[in-house]
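Record type: monomer structure entry
Structure origin: computed from sequence
Chain ID: A
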Amino acid sequence: MINNGAKVKFDYTLTVDGKVEDTSAGRGPLEYTHGAGQIIVGLEEELATMNVGDKKTVHIKAEKAYGPVLQEAIKRVPKTAINNADQIKVGDMVGASNAGHTFRAIVKEITDTEITLDFNHPLAGKDLTFDVEIKEINN
C-alpha cells in the first residue's frame, strides 16, 4: 500500500491503440510523490494498492488520463500570426505563447489564410494501457 507523500519509483510501458507510446526502459524508473498530482489520476489510483516488486497491467479510461478532446481547445489562427507558417505541415507540433504562458499545439489543417491548431494533449480522448512494476517505495 502506498501512502500519500511516499516517493515511488516504477518502471512502465505505455501502450495506446496497440502501439507503444512511451516506456521507462533504458531510462530507469519514473519517480513521483504519491498524492501530489504528478502523474495522471487513473494511474495513481491503480498504483496505490501495489507493493515493491508487484507487476500489473492497468487500463486507464480517457476521463482519468488526459481527459476528453475539447472542441474549444481547437483554434483557427491567421497564417500571419505564426512564424515560418509556409514551412509548417499538418501533424507538426508548434509552440505558442499568450500572456506569458507557453502552449504546444498540433497542426490539424492548413488553408490559404488560416492554420487550425489543436491545443488538446496529444493523448486526450485516448484510453491508456500501462504495464507497471513498482521498484521502490519510501513512505
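Annotation 1: The longest strand covers residues 128-138.
Annotation 2: Residues 46 and 58 are 7 Å apart (CA to CA).
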